[in-house]
Structures are given as C-alpha cells and as structure tokens.
Amino acid sequence: MPNFYCECCGTKSSSISSLTANSCSRHPLGPGKGKHKLYEGSEKTKYSCKYCGTSSSSISNLTGNSCSRHPNGSRKGKHVPTL
Q1: pLDDT digits (tens, 9 = 90+) for 30-66
Q2: How far is CA 18 from CA 2, 22, 24, 69, in A?
Q3: pLDDT in tens, 18-29
Q4: How far is CA 27 from each of CA 1, 38, 44, rounded to the nearest angstrom?
Q5: Alpha helices (runs of H) in the chain, residue ranges in sequence order
Q6: Beta-bridge mates of residue 13
Q7: CA distance 55 to 37
Q8: pTM higher than 0.70 for the full model?
Q9: Is the dihedral of CA 60, 9, 4, 22 positive or negative?
Q10: How many C-beta atoms surround the C-beta of residue 59 within 10 A?
C-alpha cells in the first residue's frame, strides 16, 4: 500500500483524503492556517531541497529547517522537497 506525504511537514498518511483533511503545522501561511499539501514525488531514501540542494533522509527533517536560497529571501522560508 502506498504512503502519501505532506510536502510542507512530511506527515504520512495511507490516503490522500485523510492527509489533506487535516491542518498542517508547517503550512507556509503559518501553523493551523492551511491543510496538508500532497507531496507528488515518489518515496525516496534521500530528499533534496529544490532551492539549495540540501538533503535529508525524510521530508519532515528537510522541511523543518530554513532555506538560505528560499524565493522569499534567505531564512524566510523552509526547504521544499524536489519531486
């Protein structure tokens, strides 16, 4: 059975509907200000940020840190996983 992940925080769910029905603690608008966003890439052993190339073994670990090359400015946004 496939797993589905939130692009913003790495929360894992067994269905898209249950994932996107809940609030995301790392939503770009702020905690609780939006729902989980489906990560549309495949499951990987390593995830890389699409802006700076930093990598981590999980989406959760990657998106928990600020990105020095984020489009909003250095340290003004979190890492975003590549597809």
Answers
A1: 898 999 999 999 999 999 999 999 999 999 999 999 9
A2: 13, 7, 12, 32
A3: 999 999 999 989
A4: 26, 12, 22
A5: 16-20, 59-63
A6: 4
A7: 20
A8: yes
A9: positive
A10: 24
